[in-house]
Amino acid sequence: xxxxxxxxxxxxxxxxxxxxxxxxxxxxxxxxxxxxxxxxxxxxxxxxxxxxxxxxxxxxxxxxxxxxxxxxxxxxxxxxxxxxxxxxxxxxxxxxxxxxxxxxxxxxxxxxxxxxxxxxxxxxxxxxxxxxxxxxxxxxxxxxxxxxxxxxxxxxxxxxxxxxxxxxxxxxxxxxxxxxxxxxxxxxxxxxxxxxxxxxxxxxxxxxxxxxxxxxxxxxxxxxxxxxxxxxxxxxxxxxxxxxxxxxxxxxxxxxxxxxxxxxx
Length: 265
Ligand SMILES: [Zn+2]
Ligand SMILES: [Zn+2]
Hints:
Blueprint: E1 2-7, H1 18-26, E2 30-36, H2 40-52, E3 56-60, H3 64-70, H4 73-76, H5 78-85, E4 90-99, H6 110-130, E5 134-139, H7 142-149, E6 157-159, H8 166-172, E7 178-182, H9 194-201, E8 207-209, H10 231-242, H11 246-261
Helix pairs in contact: 3-6, 10-11
The structure holds zinc ion (2 copies).
One zinc ion is lined by residues 95, 137, 160-161.
């Protein structure tokens, strides 16, 4: 029994067979799915999916790139996000955070960074007001992310697709309300790499699983479209790295996710 805590099933890549993909997961040991928003449209679609399927839940939020793409107007849309977040099947704010990685050699400049930070902070305020846990997307921005989080230590955080180094991981382990979520990239990470070392260091009761589908398909499906059914390969890899049986790893990570997101199993 597994929970896929981070999917983008509203993505165009599922337009032709979304219902089948979802049915396949639920028929093969996936108990719950959390579909995560990255902008206003995808947050709305996440809520729609949650309305349609009993075991799909929604997270709503604006990805850091959303603030770079839409500039000032994105801040105005946070009011709409607040309305969406009141829906009873919205169980988290996310994915929100900071992303300084330069795509297509387009550098993220100081102005873009400031805009991302302001967007992150407004949404952390929203999470606090609504008393919801937060799904963090953080890439190449660990120090700034950490600094902002210091003012929100009362909130619950999960770092999705976690990739922080050992130094950062050790800092985060001080906080009882921080969890770490792993996806398909751990199945092909090299032994001894930072991410593998971090997993060995993180206690089992802080680890949860996700696919981040349609992205980051695990081995043996690497390079193909990812889907919730494949979350089992991530569980298998965690079991291997932490010296647990596969059954125990699924049971524990499912329990962790349920506790974190407030599911009753
Ligand atoms: Zn992300
Ligand atoms: Zn995502």
